[in-house]
Amino acid sequence: MMKNNLLLKVLKNPVTMLDLDIKGWNSVLFEAQMLKLRGRLANDASELGLLEKLPSKVQKIFINAKIEAESGQRKIMWEVNRIRRALFEFEEKIILVKGSAYIAKGLNCAAGRTSVDIDILVAKKNLDIVENHLFIAGYGSQTMSEYDQLYYREWGHELPPLLHPDRMVEVDVHHTILQVTNKLSPNIDTIINAAEQLEDNIYLLCREDMLLHSIVHQFVDGTVKASLRNLLEQSDMIKEFSLDPDFWQRFMDRAEELNFSRPVFYCLHYCKYFLNTNIPDNVMIRAQKSAPGPLIRKLMDMMIFRVMVPFGENRSKLSDYLATNGLYMRSHLLRMPPVMLATHLTRKLYRRFDISVRALKKSA
């Protein structure tokens, strides 16, 4: 199936770039651009000394991608500096999460990564203080309807996105890692307490929680479609973190403690399928104890095999559509109770209809 995709082959073994013809390069570069992985390929080619052996046009594309990724990361770290400055009197933990954390920590998965926003995590009791400090520093909440503002503040896991008008980098201020109405929403104090200091009041999640956060973001709260980059980052973290012989024991224990064993199974299962990630047998045996039943597992495989890399020849538009929407509905069912979900989707449908009607009236 899609594990034979050319991009996957190149990601698993970058030396195969040397064997690509024009058609192969067109496919790989297009998919890498859509999946935000050109910078990653550029870094792999550079690190392995392959760059100068590639076609000249590919070299130019990769050089540009590498420059763009490095520039973006400098921009992210400067924004971290600005946030730190805005909160210099704030003595509680400001925890970098997701891309900014990978960059700040210098993890392997950050190599060539393009990041356009910053996510920080603070204790819920400090949300108003942090938001006020950022407002004073010039950040502003992006325009939203009254309902959207209420949705974020009452049921979401973060404040409405903030933006500084001079630098235009979005800052998302989280108070937990999953929506508060999500069935798997954890005791966030446990995660905050385990965070490790980077510098002054800037912290990072511990390694186990950093990997778990990426996993639940993809397989519980996020959009699985075209999320190969997330899976690749998890694979990279697994390879890097498991150099510590005690990592797997701590990680699996932590997953059980936070009730994340099911999404961890999905991560390990799909890392092995798509990326041939080396997972110890005893770890897979332990993870499989939390796997879904045969029917759900088969259904998840059918959907994820079709959308993780949503490109390629001989694709069925109908099956891709059903898989995409099936996973979308799954994420919403995990996110909210049925009555709340029905109300929320009805509001969204009505708003889309209202916007469409207004647009038609303007064009008439």
Following the backbone from N to C, one meets helices and strands in this order, namely: HHHHEHEHEHEEHEEHHHHHHHH
Helix content: 55-70%
Protein structure class: alpha/beta
Low-confidence parts: none
Distance between the termini: 48 Å
Question: Compute the gyration radius: what is it?
Answer: 21 Å
Total domain count: 1
Return the average pLDDT rounded to an integer: 90
What kind of sheet is the major sheet?
7 strands, mixed
Number of strands: 7
Percentage beta strand? 5-15%
Description of the molecule:
The chain is α/β, with parallel strands linked by helices. It has one domain. It is built from 16 helices and seven strands. Strands 3-4-5-2-1-7-6 form a seven-stranded mixed beta sheet, covered by helices on one side. A hairpin with a 6-residue loop joins strand 4 and strand 5. Helix 9 crosses helix 11, helix 9 packs across helix 12 and helix 10 packs across helix 12. The longest helix is centred in the first third of the chain and has 31 residues. The N and C termini lie far apart (48 Å). The model has no long low-confidence stretch (mean pLDDT 90).
